[in-house]
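Same chain as my last thread, 591 residues:
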Amino acid sequence: MTGSDEPDRADFEALFHQAPCGYLITDDAGHITAVNDTFVRWSGYTRHSLVGSTLQSLMPVGDQILYSTHCIPQLGINGSVSEIAVEIIHADGGRRAALLSASRSPGSGGQPAIVRVIVFSAHERRMYEKELVSAVRAAEESEARRAEAEKELQRLALHDALTGLPNRAGLKAKLDAVPGTGAKGSGRLAVLFIDLDHFKAVNDSLGHSAGDELLVSVAERLAKAAPDASAVARLSGDEFVVVGPFTGPGEATALAAELLEILKTPIQIEDLEIVTSASIGVAAAQGEEEGLEELVRRADIAMYRAKELGRSRWELHEPAASDPTVDRLRALGELRRGINEGALRVHYQPRVDLRTGRTIGVEALVRWQHPTRGLLPPSEFITMAEESGLVRPLGAWVLGETLRQADSWRREGRRGAGLEFAVNLSARQLSDPELVTMVEGALQLRDIDPSHLLLEITETALMADPDAALESLTALRNLGVNLAVDDFGTGYSSLTYLKKFPIDELKIDRSFINGLGSDSGDSAIVGSCIDLAHAVGIRAVAEGVETSGQVQTLRAMGCDLAQGYHFARPLPAPALKEWLDAHGDGEPAIA
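reply #2:
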């Protein structure tokens, strides 16, 4: 060590011991290797008694557990913990409240890791804050420092921290600064929206550090391959854009094809060759008035189309009067608002016992009172709800509203109080781990006998994941709920799964009921379905019954229940009450 180093060491030692807070240095296990004078004075211990002991031994048992089970693991993972509230046992046995912060420096060159621990008392914290305020004021007094800080903040605000590329705000600022290429410039812009295929698999299998390395490599390739007049930016995650002036869509799509080939070149990460691909959407401005945000939106739509068509390709967005993706997003927004704002309705279709002619139940069917299109049937929105995940809140609402109606009729002592209420479940609901809890909660809220609820599940939903379906259905059966297979005959129609699942009812699809009396094949299928249901001891139900001839044939075949327009269309609750008053106890009239 040279003589010039000695003052530096002396200065450091003085700063260490005179710091306004307790300062300790430990190893990973918490053994104290150094402690400053401030902590010695504050705690009342001697330096000799502290060095070699563990930091945890200075804490009550609860805080010892907190430090060992929370702080030490966090130091190993994140390298720091901030302001953990603990108590330090003073040399006289008293306890003093403190805030503990720590940072860990990994070992290197054969040297072990060290942990720097700062302990503040409330009084010391106030002193520290005053000193911090003084330091900030001193920094603000320096015009040069302030200007440098502002410059750095501006750079951070306009650039992606990982790749160094412009972010969305930085991209717009860069384009606006170049004449003829800004959002309102005279140049004709085009946007290439690039999304890596299966990027999540890299993160999941190799970790986020490998994923970050891949993103940096992709950013470098895009920046190198993009034309000089264009700008490359990272919008978020694994999404990048290349924006610039092009002579037309042909030049932009040619660049997209070139980028696809460049990105396919293997990348070496953690001794593994990673071959990546991308889906690229291209959008070219149609006129000077079309800005950057609109182009990015259209290119994003085209990118998703590329993914839908198989990935590792580019697609050009052609503006149209009606964009299906935009229409779908708009419809989803309207449906979400409809669920939240009470625009859904439940209509009820009677279910009739074919032996007695009595109505023994109803099926709840949801309708959507659209603000401009009127009352919409399920076919107009259920598929969209299932694909988007909205079917879960929608299904929960239908179940809750149906049980509310059942409870209302029960309390009023009206006809319909003892009916069985059938409610449909979608495949997405069946796979929801919260389904059983939701059903149980809805029944308990209205104090409804579970045997009055019938849940209908389609064949395809059951067979999508038979093991998971069996688990869910068994739990529902344990609640006392009845279960039905809907649309039977259109899928597997297997005796094996009818025996496997705890099913109470089999509903024969309306497509086979339509052919009764005119199509020998349909008649044979319906008869077989009824026999199959009875063979495993469950009810057979025909849906979509529209004629008296179909009713007579179904009776002759031994079918148990039926529903359809022959009896009644799906009716709102008040109209159903009137129908029940007129037809509930005997052979119903044709609706």
